[in-house]
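Class, carefully examine what follows:
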Amino acid sequence: MPCRVRRKLLVLLVVSFAVLATAGAAYAANGGFTPETPHSPNAARTNDAYYLILGFTSFIFVLVEGLLIAFVWKYRSRGRARTVEGAQVHGHTRLELMWTAFPIVILAVIAAFVFYELPGIKSAPAASNPIHVTVEGHQFYWQFDYPNGARSFNTLHVPVGAVVDLKVISADVIHSWWVPSLGGKIQAIPGRTNHFWFQATDQGLYTGQCAELCGDFHASMKDAVQAEPQAAYQHYVSSTARATLGKSEWTGVCATCHGMKGTGGYGPDISSNAILASKTSIAQTIRNGVDTARPGVMPPVGNTWTQEQIAALAAYVKTHIYKGATTSGG
């Protein structure tokens, strides 16, 4: 095969691999190359810093790669033998000073801009009257406690436009709360309390994911924020959350592993297990776990649950999930 043909095939192969490598990113959100559209002031400020850095780095990339291609073309061999040296290029003091000083200026601009944005990322608006919510990470779900005592799982309900102050804790291992459209990540660490805030500017459902590898089933530990009108939020926390507590516990916690009908998934089929017919057995199981010394076996998913929560779960599974004969107990 002629040398020229081999070079063309090599170029075609490299371009094909580059296209395939970027195809997945191109089909992702926002083309896969930029953060999700922000819907909270702190997220918007974070994105501003991202785009500034992206602008500088893109410019530098195009400049360096352009010069590299130009030099390769200009100083190509032009048919010279391999043993013949090319033209010798000597230093250029002014140019060397420029490419030393230019990166310093870029870093100074980036640092100044980031420090300018940081207060608006870290601190909520001064005049706000935030809604305080406790976010508790568990293997493998999120529990939300509202100011009036209501609870929800995996989906946090908030009113549009209200500042929400999150008190982030963990009941077992390190987790990481993360809803990209509403800001950055915050760690949920056992024995430590962290804080985070956001202000959903638009109505909608914003999804996220635990961003810390917290165990074998970490990939299913998803979270979401439902931003809704004030009236809908008030109705949820004052009525719906309590009325559907047992169902939300099952669908948000138990069904993650055992399936919506208890017939199995990552975890075993428990739809006919007599444990589901006894409130006492349910309490012991969810508070202590099952054979926790073995990796991948059920952790103590409800080790911080109240009697009200356990009673609500027991009532729901006894009616909607358990397929065995009803037994007394609990």
Summary: The chain has three domains: 35-77+90-123, 131-243, 246-320. Confidence is low (pLDDT under 50) at residues 326-330. The first helix runs from residue 3 to 26. Strands lie at 131-138, 141-145, 151-153, 155-159, 163-170, 175-178, 185-188, 194-199, 204-209, 222-228.
